[in-house]
Every structure is written in structure tokens, then in C-alpha cells.
Write a structure and sequence with these properties.
By secondary structure, the chain is mainly beta. It contains 1 helix and 5 strands.
Length: 93
């Protein structure tokens, strides 16, 4: 069984994808999430993003379950970036 849901999340950047495309690594609490971004606005972000910064995003979460209702896999896709939350905004000014 495959379940899809859209969630708004704040994801803390762990690794930025090369050229701002492909899969990024984020932290959400203690969980490490690998997510692809489909929002073309990501390429227009003017400040360099570094680990520790965060993104306020809309995320499509697709979770696959097996016949025993155990999670087999979860795929995260960022569909919209609402805001960039810089960790050290004052230090960069």
C-alpha cells in the first residue's frame, strides 16, 4: 500500500546538493531525510546555504507499506520553498 501526504515542515540542512539540484540531506528532529526538490525557486536563492541553515517547505511524503503494515520506504519531495531560515543571519550581514 502506498500513502501520499503533503506536509509543511522546517528542515535543517545537513548537505546541500551540488548545483542546488538533486537530493539534499536534512535533519528533522533526530531523523535524517533525503529529499529531492522540485521547486524551481531553489535555484534563485541568493545567499549561499550551508549546513545548519533551514528551509520552511511544503513536502510530498510517499510512504510504502508491506502486507504486515510495516514501513518499507518513505520518499520525500520538496514541492515548494516558503522561506529560507539562516542559522547565522547576523554573522552574514
Amino acid at each position: 500500500m502506498l500513502l501520499n501526504a503533503t506536509r509543511r515542515m522546517i528542515l535543517k540542512i545537513k548537505t546541500v546538493a551540488p548545483l542546488m539540484q538533486g537530493k539534499w540531506e536534512f535533519r528533522h528532529g533526530e531523523e535524517v531525510i533525503k529529499a529531492e526538490t522540485l521547486d524551481p525557486g531553489v535555484a534563485t536563492i541568493k545567499v549561499p546555504l550551508v549546513p545548519g541553515d533551514a528551509l520552511d517547505v511544503e513536502v510530498q511524503v510517499a510512504t510504502q507499506y508491506d502486507y504486515n503494515h510495516e514501513v518499507v520506504s518513505t520518499r520525500y519531495t520538496i514541492t515548494k520553498v516558503n522561506a529560507v531560515l539562516l542559522q547565522a543571519a547576523l554573522a552574514r550581514a
